[in-house]
Design a protein that fits this description.
membrane; cell inner membrane; mainly alpha; single chain; 101 residues; translocase
Length: 101
């Protein structure tokens, strides 16, 4: 396990910095705006997706763990981004004019 960390410390650093960047950006949203913007703020996971793509691109052919973790990060980040936009769309529909029959 220690050999893995020693050989992939730069990739692990990218993932950790992506996590801190995402937390920092999300924490800057004021509490008053958090509810209407929370689903749109999930798009910040784009930073996680980019970090995961970088990790997957830098991984060696035999480094299955980096590839699997990068793939999972891309899939889960993408699901969160798409889900955030779906929730935003549903919230915006609530404020639209009601259709007359």
């Amino acid at each position: 396990m220690l050999a893995f960390f020693n050989s992939n410390y730069h990739l692990i650093t990218i993932v950790i910095l992506s996590i801190f960047l995402g937390i920092e950006v999300i924490s800057r949203v004021p509490a008053v705006l958090h509810t209407p913007l929370m689903s749109g703020a999930n798009a910040i996971h784009g930073v996680v997706i980019i970090g995961a793509i970088i990790v997957m691109g830098e991984a060696h052919e035999g480094d299955i763990l980096s590839l699997v973790l990068g793939f999972l990060a891309v899939v889960l980040g993408t699901l969160n981004v798409v889900g955030g936009f779906v929730v935003t769309d549903r919230m915006l529909e609530m404020f639209g004019k009601k259709k007359k029959k």
